[in-house]
Model the fold of this input.
Amino acid sequence: MDPVGVVAVVGACRAERQSYAKRLAHQSGRVLVPADGSDGAGLGNVDGLRWLISTDEAVVEFGAAIDAIELVGALTSQEGRTRLMGVVCIVDAVHVFDDLQRDDYVAARSAPGLEVTAAALLVTRQIEYASTVLIVNWETLPTERLSVLIALMSHLNPVARVLLDSSDTDTPPTDTVYTPGQDRPGWIRILNGDFAPGATDARVSAMHYEHVRPLHPARMERLLHTIESGRFGTVVRSAGFCRLATRPDIVAQWDHVGHMMSLTPLALDHAMDDDEELLAIGQDLGFVGLDLDHEALRTQMDAAVLTDDELAAGPRAWCDFVDPFPPWHTASERSD
Done:
């Protein structure tokens, strides 16, 4: 059986997403597989594609709660049953800035048990993993604000086509090759030194921060509050890898968008194989935002890492530092 070619349509606004999915299916002559009425994650649609043996290609709409990372993983690991040809993210120009600052959480119904994800993170990932970002309801935006929006989308995902919706908008290309591992997000490109956004604006910028020393957890917590206050500008997105001095043998994922911040343990140094490469020695972070004061942000990040005296005291002394962050449990510990 030949794989079903899939163009996924995602986005936070249901009406605009549904309307575009229908239009794309009609224009391209593909079968439409709509999202379920609850606007949930909708990964059940992926399983349903196995039975679309009468068609070669389909437009599949996914609900607002879909995690784009899971979507790409599901559609590229269906044992050859599906071929992901493109991801179109519908962005409502009127609401997207508010969507990126949301502080609520969404239940992931497809996950075992009760699992929630920050709504702003879902919106951001849908933009980051799209092959095309289609901006709708943009006509009433002032030119300056529209320029900022286009540049921000391009910074969050430098390899996506960013388009303004209109009656003559071309059907998005479907020659994108999606694999389970993707480097589309802007923060990954920043870390890899391959960051080249297609659209720019004076107010939108990106910054790469690196430091080999671990972070003092108490000073880091204060830094996060300062970042959220807007003292350095509006940090829309920051992500990468870091280490806390109180947990020096663990590399953590730094994942921040809007008012949401999470630190997730990724790897234990002593559990790595000989041929594995460290994700990070200290901090390796990418920042994207509006009106960013790079010098001030970098200075305060430097102030959050260990001082010369603290570093010289060694890991035993670091264990006595105040650590306001929740305990971590790695995957290996949970399986024991």
